[in-house]
Amino acid sequence: MEKVQFKHISYLIITLKIGIVCWLAWQFFHQKTPTGFSFDTEFWLFCLAGFIAQIIDGALGMAYGVSSTALLLNMGVPPALASAGVHTAEVFTTGVSGLSHLYLKNVDKKLFFRLAIPGISGAILGAFLLSKMLNGTAVKPYIAAYLFAMGVLILAKSIREPLFKDEIKKVGPLGFAGGLLDAIGGGGWGPIVTSNIIRRGKTPQLTIGTVNTAEFFVTFFSTGVFLFFLGLEGWKTVLGLITGGVVAAPIGAYLVRLIRPRTLMFLVGCVIILTSGLTIFKSLLALA
Q1: Is residue 235 included in any domain, yes or no?
Q2: How many other C-beta atoms are found inside a 10 Å radius of the C-beta of residue 167?
């Protein structure tokens, strides 16, 4: 791992992105029925949703899935179609975001490998379980309650002067759990992994850059499993999210460098509390 450089990680991201672009292009042009795709107002609204969600994710290291899914649902997109579109689009947005963070040197290489490898394993297992056995909706309230507590802790830590550390221990199990729960719950890699590492004292800038770069590999493999078992529909949604997200990704990565670490920690805590609180609220309404 010591001989691996940032450029090698960048080359791998680019290679995998080219591979999935070729696969999607083949799928798009070899469908038996017309796709009905057009660059209409709805397409540009999907682009806007992808742009907004990726700005949030790139700057704060989390909430792409939550933000984009919420925006799509408000536009009237069915939940299953929204989930499939978001997962596929994330492969492209996290790839560009990862490349941007690597270029800006927002990545801790050692931490990256300690997160990415177990994260991929957890994501593959989670995607398989969700495709064949589990109901991801059922576990979301429990994940949200855990994240809400993490958000409160981070917010409290940002109010007093935080103590940052160079080395964070025992992140392998965290990466595995993040990948597993992200695939099962339809999102959560950023909130789960970023919140825990920042809470332990890692600098927010390096944490966000590293977690976002690792997220590409986690998302790539989980999406591969979803596409294998479930296929893909809704090209206008997918391409709109990809277009908006790819444009926003470098901007979000650059914003990380402009915001003070303590302010960034405060914003991360607020986003976690708001998004997880919304999930808990929706779960309680469903039970009422």
Answers
A1: yes
A2: 10
Which residues, at least 6 apart from 287, have a Cβ–Cβ distance to it below 8 Å?
A: none
User: Can you give 36-71 as a three-state secondary structure string?
Assistant: CCCCCHHHHHHHHHHHHHHHHHHHHCCCHHHHHHHH
**201 and 163 Cβ atoms separated by less than 8 Å:** yes
- Is 1 contained in some domain? no
C-alpha count within 13 angstroms, C-beta hemisphere, residue 83: 19
Q: 241, 203, 201: which is closest to 219 by C-alpha?
A: 241
Q: Residue 89: what residue type? A: A
**Range of the structural domain that residue 168 is part of:** 6-287
Residue 176, domain member (yes or no): yes
Residue bearing tokens 């025992």: 170
Confirm if 122 and 179 have CB atoms less than 8 A apart: yes
Report the alpha-carbon distance of residue 51 to residue 49 in Å, rounded: 5
User: How many domains is the chain partitioned into structurally?
Assistant: 1
DSSP letters for 253-267: HHHHHHS-HHHHHHH
- Contact assessment for residue 104 and residue 209, using Cβ atoms and an 8 Å cutoff: yes
Model pLDDT for residues 14-57, shown as the tens digit of each residue: 999 898 888 877 877 776 544 555 677 888 988 988 898 888 77
DSSP 202: B
Quote the pTM value: 0.76
Q: How many CA atoms lie within 13 A of 123 on its CB side?
A: 27
Tens-digit pLDDT profile for residues 75-124: 777 655 666 677 788 888 888 888 988 988 889 888 999 999 999 999 89
- CA separation for the pair 127, 132 (Å, rounded): 9
